[in-house]
Write a structure and sequence with these properties.
2 copies of one chain form a homodimer. The first copy, chain A, has 12 helices and 24 strands. By secondary structure, chain A is α+β, with helices and mostly antiparallel strands. In chain A, strands 1-21-20-22-23-24 form a 6-stranded mixed beta sheet, with helices on both faces.
């Protein structure tokens, strides 16, 4: 994404009137029609230039927040050696029903990674031997493969998708808890920066053998395939298992205060205890010379699922309404009357000036498209600000600026325009 | 890679005295020992934080040069629908011997993409219908899977690897040729920016049905598994097929002028003609209303193979010698006498100042490691400049600066230090 601005005439994609008939999810319908994604097959999508820009903005936000709490980025392979997974008893298809596996021509079978606990635990044996090596927080944004019976909900549940997965390695429970809480806070920051924080709840879920609760981050949405029980007043959410099994009073709510809502799981954090470090023999020597298994945690966010959730929440009947933080460009500069060379030259100058001012601009410089078509495309693509450059704006010396989210219309002079966008660059 | 600088004490990797016994390739041995990569299994490697930084610098150079000639980045999926590949007769294992395939739980078989001609041709049917839509140059940096009988040469030939693959779509042969030549020039720029341009030859190879020649970019290296025939004097290289089959006189050389050399294929460009557009029915209407198949080309570079080639060429018996363009950090700030708090505080200040001046710094802030160990690690890791901060440098008011590539030693004051690195920031 080294290009700051782009001319629409050069973009190889186009908007489409209709999404494919087999695409029922609203997020995918809008993203396909606007030219962000292409559906290759059930559960596998292409991220087109506009879509890749959104994903990269999402990834940048995730990276900034993970680095801020001590995360270190790396990237592990997809191909999986069965031996590691046999050690944790997760190789068999009886235990894990989402494996893709394939014959190796050199002999044997390989799996395609659907998560990476075993791989990272094996790898960290190289680098952890003493309490002085702890804590450590490696993460990756890497492709997972999951052999789902049904791919559904557009880009929400696919058979291959990038995931940000961070793994924590701690010497003590206190070290683990401190990072777990820091990561939980970082996740809420991330969802707020995505523009979906106000609808996203840190949700109590079952914890497994090593902690009473784990946590999901659930965004309330009609399109969700999950169910959560929420008290908006108390800011508490729990999942179905917790309603049934846990003592709600320790969470400060009663069952009667909880409302059943549909939701999308946009992230989760999990205390793994010593499950994987014991299975794969990842040990360290503590301050007293005693050998112990490392305490682990895992922390996931799906960038594409986040993108789908943003679209589901932030769209209207005309199209997508991107928040500035993840919009592929900040400004949609829509050129009219461009068959007139003097208007075209002048519009090109405005485009250059905006770009030189550090503003990311998509310039609809198409000469043949009609005004109505351009405005409909602009609403569908959904950039935060639409600025019209036309014969009229050249004559008047002012530009019509429409804020996509509110519909607010302003008339700004060229100076006001740069000042307005300069105050808040989205780079 | 949002972090500009890093403290070595926080890095979760460490240097290793020995590479794994089964790792024979020099590039992988050095990269493993220095903590850039980890070997998960034959043909599958992890890129650790230092290694990922190198890959991202390589990718940034590739992106800049591809964008400069009109490339547009996107990313296609790995999972492959057999129907597309049956259309081009490349699904059968009899015709293609590197497929990984897997059963889909929902029924049927999927492949894992080893290249993407079929996928991009299918996709472009959505967006190309007229000569006005041409030419277009989509590209991706995306993971390929190849079921190689033998994974070898370290990170040079693996079973999964990222590839930059660009595909060109043209209306006329002239349009195609213009881009083919522009991309060839861009490739040489890329290899020069990687620091291996002086050893890399645009090499004539067989062209297939649609052009007399295709071109490989071959870097002369003893570790190479390819063979090229080179006239250094005339700046011409050809591969074995061309020596046997083509008329060398039209390339301006005789067989006697060509020297047989080992080499590494770091890139290739290929005219595909209408092979895929005919098989998958990608057509456009020309200026006269006539329907024609689109003329295609493909253009590949492997970032990890480039990284391995750089290491093979640019290393000595002490370790790696990164060129500034792809070094994970520009400066290795090596702290000595850090058990003295006054030295430590002062060294921290130098680290902060370098970072604030926009210099990417790896700070060896480890307190317990001995000086000899730190210098050996620094040579192995191979950053362009080593700067020592010690009791002696604090007292003298000068810093020892060693240039890794030349061994040149300079004594610079703090002011001279910032000025020296400021002149040439590597960001």
């Amino acid at each position: 994404m080294s290009t700051k601005s782009l001319r629409q005439s050069q973009l190889f994609t186009k908007t489409r009137r209709e999404a494919p008939a087999d695409e029922v999810a609203k997020n995918a319908q809008l993203l396909i029609r606007a030219g962000y994604i292409y559906k290759n097959m059930a559960g596998a999508y292409t991220f087109l230039p506009l879509g890749l820009r959104v994903i990269e903005k999402i990834n940048t936000i995730i990276r900034e927040e993970m680095d801020a709490i001590g995360g270190q980025e790396m990237v592990m392979p997809s191909l999986q050696d069965s031996a590691l997974w046999e050690a944790s008893d997760r190789w068999s298809d009886d235990n894990v029903d989402v494996w893709f596996k394939s014959e190796l021509k050199a002999g044997g079978v390989v799996g395609f990674g659907w998560t990476h606990e075993e791989v990272i635990t094996d790898l960290m044996r190289q680098y952890i031997s003493s309490y002085k090596d702890l804590p450590k927080f490696p993460y990756q944004i890497q492709k997972k493969f999951r052999n789902e019976m049904r791919a559904k909900s557009g880009i929400m549940r696919t058979r291959e998708f990038d995931m940000k997965d961070l793994y924590s390695f701690s010497a003590t429970q206190e070290q683990h808890d401190a990072f777990y809480n820091a990561c939980s806070d970082a996740y809420m920051k991330i969802f707020h920066r995505f523009g979906i924080g106000h609808m996203t709840y840190k949700t109590f879920a079952s914890g497994g053998a090593f902690s009473k609760f784990s946590h999901e981050f659930q965004t309330l949405a009609e399109a969700g395939e999950d169910i959560v029980y929420v008290s908006e007043a108390k800011g508490v959410a729990v999942n179905e298992e917790v309603v049934k099994e846990a003592d709600l009073s320790e969470l400060g709510v009663t069952e009667g205060e909880l409302e059943k809502r549909k939701s999308i799981e946009v992230g989760n954090i999990f205390s793994l205890g010593t499950k994987f470090s014991e299975a794969l023999n990842l040990r360290f020597t503590d301050e007293n010379g005693e050998e112990k298994p490392v305490i682990m945690g895992s922390y996931g966010i799906g960038p594409a699922r986040s993108m789908g959730t943003i679209v589901d929440l932030l769209s209207d009947d005309k199209g997508i309404v991107w928040p500035e933080s993840v919009a592929p460009f900040k400004v949609h500069l829509v050129g009219l009357n461009l068959d007139d060379a003097s208007i075209r030259d002048w519009a090109e100058g405005i485009f250059d000036n905006l770009t030189d001012n550090g503003i990311e601009v998509l310039f609809d410089d198409r000469i043949e498209a009609r005004a109505g078509e351009k405005f409909a495309d602009s609403d569908l693509i959904g950039l935060p600000y639409r600025v019209v450059v036309s014969k009229k704006s050249k004559e008047n010396g002012t530009f019509e600026v429409v804020t996509r989210a509110t519909g607010e219309v302003r008339q700004l002079t060229e100076t006001e325009l740069y000042a307005d966008f300069d105050n808040n660059p989205n780079t």
